[in-house]
Amino acid sequence: MTENETRPQDAEAKAELEGVPEELVLGANDEQASASELEAVKAELEAAKQDVLYAKAETQNLRRRMEKDIADTRAYAATSFARDILSVADNLSRALDSIPADLREDDKMKNLVAGLEATGREIEKVFGSHGIVRIAAKGLPLDPHQHQAMLEIPSADVEPGVVIQELQAGYMIKDRLLRPAMVAVAKKPD
């Protein structure tokens, strides 16, 4: 067979290589070069696959963080407003506590007391609907994560470190501290 004559297999191979870059066609004739190029391409492909996997994982982590941030923002958006309203609730409670028991039964004061108590219940209901709950304090051991000890009172009746008086109510909003309860704690008598 002469150089100008083509074999049927060569014609098929030539047809298959159409559209393939010339560097690859020329490298196909050299087996050793094509094997090393193939290994290099495989290595690049593997590196690209790893990069894609890392990018997908990072995107998924970022999406999860953003979803958590959005959920936290929704859950705790009312925090500063709730702190401000706590002082209103405290003043309402003080107003009720300042009314002597004998005046509470007086016909002139009965409606005022009933109105103040109803307002207090409404505030507690609104707090509850927004996940704001009062922290239990009296009779419990001091919890530095929820209570702020303002003073110690000597007591033989109660174990040292137990809250014996609540000076100001504390509140949580969902699972976060909104305001610590200010308390008096028992200590051993001198």
Automatic annotation (TrEMBL):
Coiled-coil region: 28-58
Organism from which the protein derives: Novosphingobium olei
The organism's taxonomic lineage, starting at the top: Bacteria, Pseudomonadati, Pseudomonadota, Alphaproteobacteria, Sphingomonadales
Free-text function comment from the UniProt entry: Participates actively in the response to hyperosmotic and heat shock by preventing the aggregation of stress-denatured proteins, in association with DnaK and GrpE. It is the nucleotide exchange factor for DnaK and may function as a thermosensor. Unfolded proteins bind initially to DnaJ; upon interaction with the DnaJ-bound protein, DnaK hydrolyzes its bound ATP, resulting in the formation of a stable complex. GrpE releases ADP from DnaK; ATP binding to DnaK triggers the release of the substrate protein, thus completing the reaction cycle.
Claim: Hydrolase is one of the keywords in the record: no
InterPro entries listed in its UniProt record: GrpE, GrpE_CC, GrpE_head
Record keywords: Chaperone, Coiled coil, Cytoplasm, Stress response
GO MF annotation, one: protein homodimerization activity
The protein, known as: Protein GrpE
Family according to the record: Belongs to the GrpE family.
Domain of life: Bacteria
Complex formation: Homodimer.
Main subcellular localisation: cytoplasm
Pfam families named in the record: GrpE (PF01025)
Keyword presence, Chaperone: yes
Matching HAMAP family: GrpE (MF_01151)
PANTHER family to which the protein is assigned, alphabetical: GRPE PROTEIN, GRPE PROTEIN HOMOLOG, MITOCHONDRIAL
GO cellular component, one term: cytoplasm
Gene Ontology biological process: protein folding
Gene: grpE
Subcellular location: Cytoplasm
